[in-house]
Amino acid sequence: MRHEKAAALLNLARTLASSAEGLTLDEMAQELGESRRTIERMRDALASVFPQLEEVQDGATKRFRIPGGLDGFINAPTKEELLELNKAIEGLRRRDANASADTLQTLEKKMRSAMKRPALNKVAPDLEVLLRAEMIAVPAGPRAVEDPDVLLAIRDAHLQMKVLRFVYHGGSRPGATREVVPFGILFGRCNYLIAADFGTTKPKHWRLDKIEGVAVLEKNAARPDDFNLVQFATGSFGFFQGEQEDVVLHVLPHGMDEFQNWQFHPNQTVEQLADGSALVRFRASGMLELVWHLFCWGNQIEVISPVSLRELMTTELRAALSRHEGRPDFH
Prior knowledge:
- The protein has 331 residues and is α+β, with helices and mostly antiparallel strands.
- Helices cover 41% and strands 21% of the residues.
- The strands form 3 sheets. The chain has a 5-stranded antiparallel sheet, with helices on one face.
- The model has no long low-confidence stretch (mean pLDDT 84).
């Protein structure tokens, strides 16, 4: 068996060992990007290597899983895997996301402690060299502050389907006590709780660093069944939701090199033009955030539509220009 086939078989074994309910043949095919017939052959090969492979009837379909996990030797992490995990931890710490960093640090220690000594001794020297040679750059911007108690309370309320109460130092009523139904959490430049005021269903953004005195109440609540956090997040350019608009941006020829590896929106379409420029189209809300981002493109991008976005762009540019013409007035 070629190396690639052995690696694919091992990957399938790990997938089946990590799934509590097991996977169908079609799910295995989708996971590995293989045909169903290939997966059937791989399943038969796994059964000869892992006699504990189980077949579970799930209605009209069959699921397969490997109970009890795999031997530590098979699951020993590579230096590349440990490197990426350590880089992620360091990147989180540099953004002050210490709660998430601590969780991943604990995972990293568990992984190392589960490794057999010869394997750990082989990986450790190379890992130290690579860690000194690579890091994740943290761009300028707000720090995504995390309070472990706030995160724990939000997750508990979500799992128990309960109402959250907290004092919110933001919004239209700073310092007011709020009761909300949690829908999810968005992590990014700022971390936001997505939740609706208790008794309503419209989701709002609540900055985690402005939440204080959080408590999980005994009031039952659950987010609407039709709410999808991914769809909600992709509905705006940044974080702020509002009325969605059709946006068209013209990337000029001298901006195309930068644009080649850039994405403005997950659902954008790009039309290449004969002069070497491109039109980017997407539908989103959050026009002010989009304007702020477009500042960094200088004269490489022109706003085509909507007209309101173009007008907002010129208004914000004039406001910034008014503070930089002439001598500074600070003494």
